[in-house]
What we know:
Layout: H1 3-20, H2 27-51, H3 59-87, E1 95-100, H4 106-117, E2 122-126, E3 133-138, H5 145-150
Antiparallel strand pairs: 1-3, 2-3
Helix pairs in contact: 1-2, 3-4
Amino acid sequence: MNGLVEVLVWWVVLVLVWLASLTTASVPELVAAAVCAVPCALAARWARLAAGNAWRPRARWLAWLRAVPVSVVADTARVFGVVLRRLRGDRVTGDFRTLPVRSDDEGTRAVATVLVSATPGTVVVDAPPGENVLVAHALVDGRSAVERAVSR
């Protein structure tokens, strides 16, 4: 991917992330998003180059991304359930789980890490080098749609 295209892709993604955090979009917010995303997009490219990564986007990442909204809504409800159980006096600590990732590509494991950690009930705590697994701490019972998607 040439440098300009990569920076443009990062810029679009960062603007969309900014806009997703808004309750109402206004012209000043759109301008702020567009301006602030430029140095961040440049930094993202430079960081990738400094790390020596040459990831290529994979089609399966889009399928994983589709699972995020479902997982966020479901995990939010399940986290509220954990809060209610804690208020009743139950001891809830969560557990660690190992998620197989069907790829030895570092980019795929990185994307899987970000998406699994984007849900309120689970955070990836380790991605052992050379292994096709992620170690995650889950506060809630059951696996989210994102966890199931990255494990296929």
